[in-house]
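Before the break, one more example. Copy the sequence into your notebook; we will annotate it together after we see the structure.
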Amino acid sequence: MPAESGGAAAGQAGQTVQSVEPVLEARGLVKRYGHVTALDGCDLELLPGEILAVIGDNGAGKSSLIKALSGALTPDSGELLLDGKAVRFHGPADARRAGIETVYQDLAVAPALDIASNLFLGREKRRKGVLGTVFRMLDRDRMQSEAAGHMAELKIGIRSMKQAVETLSGGQRQGVAVARSAAFARHVVIMDEPTAALGVKETGMVLDLIRQVRERGLPVVLISHDMPAVFDVADRVHVQRLGRRVAVVRPGEIEMSDAVAIMTGAAPGNLAAG
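Here is what the structure looks like once it is written out:
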């Protein structure tokens, strides 16, 4: 199979040939919970500058895979590589320190706090000098200014950074969570079901946000059940079934119905061979 570059490598699982080094790679991940095997030798490659969608039926191991990538669980065996170097995360904080940010389905925002406070939640900026070091006073003006800049970079229209998040629409709340991740990620942004429970208009807004994140140079792992959204925004689609990758396909080279057939086991993974 010829090598492919950028975000365009595709082929049968385990047989993809790439001309660029993955930003994030999983090799042979295994995770068991008693007699249940959630990950069964799972592989994944995220290439620079791409949106890689991860799809799979319930019980396919998507959640366990994403938790492994984001540091929320430690695999029993297998390895993770970041920029070609082996890494081991003992918790989400390790992944964040490595430059991997995750937007979870529940968003993990504080509804009563304003937008700027949410963007810097856990990373608050303190005032200079004794006011910050001794009295630990927050530099709210700086946080609001920087928050406005981050939101503007992603073209998220918000009236004021002083608005409480609970006053925002679902799509705008998702925008706050995405902006927070994009602001601090250095390597990868992972998005878990970002369009769940959103209407058509707000789904379109979130897909535009995902493209904006990629245009800023950050590759994205997108987990979604929304197949039209996946085929709209993804460069490649990782198909997960029974704890392992069974195919990697490219929208435009395969019908959505065929991808679903591979996902459910109605068609073999080699249908996706490039």
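The first strand starts at residue 11 and ends at 12. The chain is about 30% helix and 25% strand. Try to locate both features in your own notes.
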